Amino acid sequence: MPESIFAQPIDFSKSEQYTLSIRLRTDGFSFSVFVPTQEEATNYFHHAIHPSLSLTANLKQALIRYEFLSCSYKRVCILLAGNRYTSLPLEFYEPEEKEVIFYHNHPHRDNEIILGNTLKREQIVFLFGMEKSAYQLLLQHYPQARFYHQAFPLAGWFAVKSKLGNSRKMLAFIRSESIDILCYERGRLLLANSFTCQHTEDRIYYLLYVWKQLRFDQQRDELHLAGTLTEKEKLLAELRRFIGQVFILNPCEYIDMEALLTLDTD
Q1: 108 with 51: CB under 8 angstroms?
Q2: Of 10, 52, 97, 166, which residue is most buried, by most CB within 10 angstroms?
Q3: Is 9 left (phi over 0), alpha (psi -120 to 50) or beta?
Q4: Which of 97, 124, 95 is nearest to 263 (CA)?
Q5: Within 10 Å of residue 16's Cβ, how many Cβ atoms?
Q6: Is 148 exposed, middle or buried (0-12, 13-18, 19+ CB in 10 A)?
Q7: What is the structure's pLDDT at 2?
Q8: How far, in Å, CA of 80 to CA of 13, rounded?
Q9: How many angstroms separate the CA atoms of 128 and 106, rounded?
Q10: How far is residue 235 from each of residues 26, 57, 126, 201, 220, measured CA to CA in Å?
Q11: pLDDT (0 to 100) of residue 243
Q12: Mean pLDDT across the stretch 63-88?
């Protein structure tokens, strides 16, 4: 029986009823186990990685170290966080051309596979690159695994949220090394982009730059912040000097891996 490293005990003898989710980031991995019978059904655990090792090497160490990763699960979701993604309208997407499309926007890398997620209701495709050896390792370990880019579930969730009210809405998902920005007008995606930045001043600059470029209204339109909000008070104070409607999202609002499974993917 795997030892419990989660906040609440989990009976892994019933793991075939659970959903395992693995989020891969450059600063570490996050594991979560969805247990339908628990009041707080999703359990999270963060694993720090060795920055000198490749994604594949770090994954191999984690798979050996944690017994719960060797259990059988009903579903397995792999979520990749990073800047190497692009989006395009579904009408312009040809699966056999996804490498050409992706490398038109990003420099070519060896040992990389290009994967795609499709939001059919919004008619948007997200293409993203993943280390091929890591992809093969995870697929070998979890043949039923489904792979997503982090921007995909965020876009699907925020598209629905953006239809509430008459204001345009911006979602900023902040990570330690970058920021993902999604902008909507009543369900219609206006922009999906990622910027490399590690400091609060740079995050403020990119947010206000995009806000200005899209001509969002300072008083009526909304900015929603999610992710790792370091120097939160400083960030909020500066943003609220220029934007009247600034909100912080509760992770429970947008981290729902069970809901992720209802989205379309190819």
Answers
A1: no
A2: 10
A3: beta
A4: 124
A5: 10
A6: buried
A7: 53
A8: 28
A9: 10
A10: 23, 36, 29, 8, 20
A11: 96
A12: 92
* The pLDDT of residue 227: 82
Among 124, 225, 115, 235, residue whose Cα is nearest residue 179: 225
Is the pLDDT score of 235 beyond 80?
A: yes
H helix and E strand count, the chain: 8, 13
Percentages helix, strand, coil for the chain, rounded to the nearest 5?
30, 30, 35
Encode pLDDT of 129-151 as tens digits: 999 999 999 999 999 999 999 88
Tokens 């003898």 locate to 13
Residue 13's alpha-carbon distances to 43, 64, 87, 153, in angstroms, are 16, 19, 40, 29
Residue 211 CB neighbours (<10 A)? 21
Contact 25, 16 (CB under 8 A): no
pLDDT surpassing 90 at residue 42: no
